[in-house]
């Protein structure tokens, strides 16, 4: 009697990476609030996200004010919890260390953080160069390579962007 073949493929993981909305000038970097235009752009992206299937259990952001405000607006619209801020998501973050963090967790995530590290994380995971606009979101989908050693791209692709 033949038995169905079971797939040994790793389950798919959704990684959502958002750049904060436009921030005001004239403040200390960590305290730059969103401009009105930045708030509106984040609100519009949150509306678009509300129509999509989001797998992340919550939203994690950088501790900088513009990222926290952006994450709060999205979390409110999507009815997702805001997770404690992560100092690992600062603008000067090490992209490879962030990917190692993702690799160790292997769960769907939604991060709100900064350039240039956002683009660097996308590159490590997909091999694609991206140039995120403020309030831009990239959805990456893929599976984790069991043998990843930090020296090659992962098995992810850009599924969509807003």
Note the beta-strand portion. 15-25%
CATH class term: Alpha Beta
Rounded to an integer in angstroms, the radius of gyration calculated over CA atoms is 17 Å
By CATH's scheme, which homologous superfamily applies? Answer: Phosphoglycerate mutase-like
CATH fold label: Rossmann fold
Give the biggest beta sheet.
5 strands, mixed
Helices, by number, come to: 4
Query: Mean of residue pLDDT?
Result: 89
CATH architecture: 3-Layer(aba) Sandwich
User: Based on CA inertia axes, which overall geometry fits?
Assistant: globular
Task: Please mark out the parts with pLDDT under 50 across 5 or more consecutive residues, or reply none.
Answer: 1-9
Pattern of helices and strands: EHEHHEHEE
Through-space gap between termini: 49 Å
Strand order of the largest sheet: 2-3-1-4-5
The overall strand count is 5
What structural class is derived from the secondary structure elements? alpha/beta
User: What's the structural domain tally?
Assistant: 1
Helix percentage range: 25-40%
């Amino acid at each position: 009697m033949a038995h169905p073949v079971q797939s040994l493929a790793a389950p798919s993981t959704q990684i959502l990476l958002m750049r904060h909305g436009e921030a005001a000038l004239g403040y200390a970097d960590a305290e730059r609030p969103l401009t009105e235009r930045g708030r509106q752009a984040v609100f519009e992206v949150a509306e678009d996200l509300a129509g999509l299937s989001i797998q992340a259990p919550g939203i994690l952001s950088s501790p900088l004010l513009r990222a926290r405000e952006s994450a709060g607006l999205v979390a409110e619209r999507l009815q997702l919890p805001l997770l404690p801020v992560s100092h690992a998501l600062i603008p000067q973050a090490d992209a490879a260390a962030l990917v190692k963090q993702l690799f160790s967790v292997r769960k769907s995530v939604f991060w709100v953080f900064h350039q240039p590290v956002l683009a660097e994380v996308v590159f490590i995971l997909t091999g694609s160069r991206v140039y995120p606009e403020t309030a831009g979101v990239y959805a990456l989908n893929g599976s984790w390579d069991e043998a990843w050693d930090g020296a090659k791209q992962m098995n992810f692709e850009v599924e969509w962007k807003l």
